[in-house]
Amino acid sequence: MIEGILVEGLIYATMALGVFITFRVLDFPDLTVDGSFPLGAAVMAILVSSGVPSLIALLVAFLSGILAGLITATIHNKLRVPNLLAGILTMTMLYSINIRVLGNRPNLPLIRQETILTTFTRWFEPMPDEWSLLIFFVLVTVLIKVLIDLFFRTDLGLTLGAMGNNEQMVVTQGVNPETLKLIGVGFSNGLVAISGAFAAQYQGFADVNLGQGIIIAGLASVMIGEFILRSNRIGMLTLRVVLGSIAFRGIMYLGRYYGYYINLTPNDLRLITGILIIISLVITQLRKQKRATTVDLDQGRSTPSSGDAA
Amino acid sequence: MIRLENVTKVFNPGTPHENVAIRTVDLTIEKGDFVTIIGSNGAGKTTLFNLISGTMPVSAGRVFVDETDVTKHSEHRRAQIIGRIFQDPLLGTASNMMVADNMMICYRKGMKGLRISLTSSMRDFFREKLRDLEMGLENRMNDNVGLLSGGQRQALTLLMMVLSEPSLVLLDEHTAALDPKNAQIVLDLTSRFIAEYGLTSMMITHNMGQAIRYGNRLLMMDRGEVILDVSGDEKRTLTVEKLVQKFHEIRNADLESDELMLSQGT
Is residue A50, in this structure, part of any structural domain at all? Predict the structure, then answer.
């Protein structure tokens, strides 16, 4: 059971990292995620079941997610539509697209198909599947996390970091903020689609409704992570998103299996997620107020721990 | 060098709220000039800066920087050769990022690539430059900018702007939001950097004393026009009294009844 929570947490961590990039780094609340997650799953499923090698299928899923993000960013940039609405538009359109991708059906099973996961578990044959999957997803998540960390150390990554905080500064430095939004939102949705592709392989099917409420799960993971660690270093910021995702899956697991003691059903999980986010927001608010009073007294000098970047 | 040709800006043209903010301004600023600009509220000083930096389009006329016609260029494109500092110290830096990261973003203007330029030798270089500010920031390079005071932030913004070596510097009352002591420090740094790096600059100020003391040329604006342009020896011998007198000669107005809101302090 613990390995199940860890595997799920790691699969969704990639999605949460995407949500972190838009919500926290870019300050671009992007709801495309609810559509790009099942898009990644659908692309992966249809390609694998039509015999495409699974690594190539994963790459195409990544690219399809990027494309979805680019569409949202373009709608926002060119039509001056608020970012929230732009995301909802793309997400809604993706619902139909995803059914098309799956071959005009709402879901597609992957049972008895050769996927990246089945290949990997065969390599570690005597080991139980759950444990070899855990090894696999630890490796994948570390790889993705390290690549993201490296990206945010490059000149482009640093500028992307400034974007969500101070758009005027980015303009003053001679950079077009529209280009940065394209890059950031595209990259973010690419990650989300990868997460969706792995979720489909893990669950053994792709479904158009796989993405419902996924954005809220991602946001909850990001927020829970922010309680676990406080830092302004990118390596720590991404690490805590991963940890937050695992913690979130743990809480959901508890709700699913032990919730019936207090008369909860699996249908109440969304309510719990929402309440979790509200509690996080309240605690953050209270901390901010407390910090604000210390800043007034010491002219902004004595807040060494207030360095939560992004 | 910068040249404005018949630049005009009209807000809400063709409506009852029509307002001519800038009226056919012709202006040439030579390389290395440090121009101070004064004028009452609503004289069009900030609008003039917005037109030069491309924040808003001109209604008529043309803008040249170093003989390039930039009239049609977007703000971020012009920003590659124009450095601008705003009154609000928050606008020049990203508060949730470290001092070193901020300096790296501003070091090279224009679109960035996937290179990691913030190496340890780059850090040493930034540390040396921060030492010039004499604010102890060289020891706080890993602190988030949000932890710095307004004066420190504005000094940092100034340093970052200077290091990017712009063709033109626009300072929009960049010390007005600071307390008098910090304002003086930032102002001294400004005039030192401008001299050291030989930057062509324009500085808006509300303080006649400052406008006279700094720079080699002084412009006075009123109702969207440049009504006074003093440079050379005439600028050097200028006093606040002479300036006020000149304003009256031109506008033939009475100080008491006029809305001129210049402070006469130093």
Answer: yes
Average confidence (pLDDT) per 10 residues, chain A, 310 residues: 91 97 94 96 95 95 98 96 95 96 93 85 84 94 96 94 91 93 97 96 92 91 89 90 95 85 83 88 84 54 38
Q: From CA B1, how far away is CA B16, in angstroms rounded?
A: 38
Query: Do B208 and B55 meet the contact criterion of CB atoms below 8 Å apart?
Result: no
In a domain? residue A278: no
DSSP A124-146: TTTS-HHHHHHHHHHHHHHHHHH
A276, part of any domain: no
Q: Note the ipTM here.
A: 0.83
By Cβ distance, the residue of B105, B111, B149 closest to A158 is B105
State the average pLDDT over residues B179-187.
Answer: 92
Chain A residue with minimum CA distance to B92: A169
For residue B102, list chain A residues with Cβ-Cβ distance below 8 A: 162
Q: Which domain CATH number covers A134?
A: 1.10.3470
In this complex, do A162 and B97 lie within 8 Å of one another by their Cβ atoms?
yes
What are residue A98's phi and psi, to 5 degrees? -60, -40
Domain that holds residue A228: 2-270
Closest by Cβ to A173, choosing from B109, B144, B149: B109
- Any domain includes A47: yes
Domain coordinates in residue numbering, chain B? 1-81+166-266, 93-164
Q: What is the domain class of B1-81+166-266 according to CATH?
A: alpha beta
| Top-ranked range on mean pLDDT: pick from A113-122, B162-171, B241-250 | B162-171
Kindly give, in sequence order, each residue whose CB lies less than 8 Å from that of residue B150, ignoring residues fewer than 6 positions away: B89, B177, B178, B182
* Chain B residues near any Cβ of chain A (below 8 Å): 74-77, 79-80, 83-84, 86, 90-98, 101-102, 104-106, 108-118, 143-144, 146-149, 164
Q: Among all residues of chain B, which has the CA nearest to that of A291? A: B147
CA distance B238 to chain A (A): 34
pLDDT tens track for B5-20? 999 999 998 888 888 9
Q: What is the tens place of the pLDDT at every residue in B187-211?
A: 999 999 999 999 999 999 988 888 9
**How high is the pLDDT of residue A216?**
92
Nearest to B110 among A153, A175, A308 (CB): A175
Number of domains in chain A: 1
Residue environment code for B223-261, b if the CB has 16+ CB neighbours within 10 A, otherwise e: ebbbbbebeeeebeebebeebeeebeeeeeeeeeeeebe
